[in-house]
Amino acid sequence: MRKTLLFYVLLIAAVANAGLYTADNDGYTYTGTPIDAFSVDFTTWTTDSLPTAWLDEDPAHEAGGMAFVKWTLTNRSVKYNGVSATKPVCFNNGTTADATPVKNNTSTHKPRIYLPKTSRGVKKVKAIIACAKARSLAINYKDDNHTSWTYTSAQALNALASWEVDTVECELNTVGETSIFIQYGSTDYLGILSIELELVNNTSVSLDKHSLLMNTDATCELVATPLPADLALTWSSSNEAVATVADGVVTAIGVGEADIVVSGGEGVTDTCHVTTIAHDGFALGEDGYWHYSGEPVNGVDVEFSNLGEEDVYYTTGNLHADLLWNFAGIGIYKWSYHASRSCEGETYGPLLWNSGNSENGTNGAIKNSAPEKLAAIYLPEIQNGVKTLTVEGWTNNNSRSLMLDAEDNEGVWTPVNELNTEYDSYYVTLTGNTYTTAVFDFSSHDIRRLRLWRNSNDYQFLTRIAVEAMPASVDPTGVEEVPSDQIPSTKVLRDGQLRILHNGKEYNSIGQTIQF
Q: Cβ neighbours of residue 195 under 8 Å, at least 6 residues apart?
């Protein structure tokens, strides 16, 4: 009897001091060599396999490569598909099967099981558990991205009631070497029959993007992270009529959808879904701005009440992408659809507004500091020049402005007052919470291409944009003397426009005076 007692004491001492775990400020740390696989079946253990964890003490007793705080092993009757059977289970009580379960409310003193550190990330924690009531085991972990113990409500193993055995699992997807402990915080009895860790594959590849929205002719580079780093990768497209890929560089060919797949071997893949749209008459220049590339038009009048959500291509999750979509002939860059908005007691909608994603605007107004990347509206080239620009809408706050740029003959976007120095302003002002019709007169100047862009963090709502074109003029051949009852008039062609010189003044083709 004395020999048996001495052996049992030595067994406890040996297990409790195996040296794989050391105490720290928030529990215990595994100090052994990280492992490549882990599973334990408690139903094969004997009651001597796990020493008693006393209620008034908190040593981490080690067994099977694990450290146990306030768990012990006992035979327990559990149900498999409603049929009872007695099995050894890891049990949350302090002494014997009949003792009260541990109820300590201090987090580091609750029943815990520390698992050995893994050599790579943990994809899932799996277990077979049973409980008197429906209760949960909390999963806590540390990995390369989390240097302190991390837990969320989704990281739990949920047991059924009435001691019905349940196979459960919890998705973790940790990164790098991972430490885990399982904690129970309820006063109800709970038994664990087995624990298994499913580690991430030794060989893997991941992409930095899993969806892309691109204009045709655009390119975008996908960055693949292989494990190991020298893993050979191959790239493919499910529809090369829509998008091709070479060494991660995706080129949009035609309108449609395609999956870009990177592969490091059988079962080691990642995918990016690509949707491509046409830019319809606009082309992205090397300067980062868009430029009209279609045929000149004789005016624009777009009411956004005709705008449908199906017409809009959001840039959600990639607000600074070089993506432009065409609506009724105008190029829209980082503006989107809003279902309705009230102003001065009236409800307007749909509207165009300067948010990066959808009518809910969860990403807010776009605030990129690069001028060519700000939310902008590109107008088509006006055949005879712009006479007036009309913008209807408002802002949600104080009066704010839409800046105006004109494209010069060199294809450079320049504020209109720099092209024509007599302008003392180069913006259309929208009034805060007041419906505004702003009209800009360009009739005295030959401006054919305009760009409106936002220069505020406040939301702006647009209901209409209209451009009235200058009337067509008859191009004279050379210089012609025109008889007059009083003073002769002379027709000349200046900068491609008909001008009339009469009595010391210059007039355009519709009789407006031009000072010179």
A: 38, 39, 40, 113, 115, 125, 126, 127, 182
SS3 sequence, 444-459?
CCCCCCEEEEECCCCC
Q: How far apart are CA 284 and CA 218, in angstroms?
A: 9
Q: For residue 214, give both structure tokens.
A: 């691109």
204: which 2 tokens?
A: 């893997």
Collapsing DSSP states into helix, strand and coil, what is residue 194? strand
CA distance 133 to 130: 8
Confirm if 197 and 205 have CB atoms less than 8 A apart: no
DSSP string, 462-497: EEEEEEEEPPP----SS-EEE--SSS-EEEEEETTE
Per this entry, what is the length of the chain?
516
Residue with tokens 């839409």: 402
What are the start-end ranges of the H helices in 95-166? none
Residue range 379-431, pLDDT digits in tens: 999 998 999 999 999 988 778 888 889 988 788 888 877 665 554 456 778 88
Place of tokens 């045709």: 216
Confidence of residue 498 (pLDDT cuts 50, 70, 90): low
Angle subtended at Cα 491 by Cα 486 and Cα 493, rounded to the nearest 5 degrees: 160
Tell whether the model's pLDDT for residue 6 goes beyond 50: no
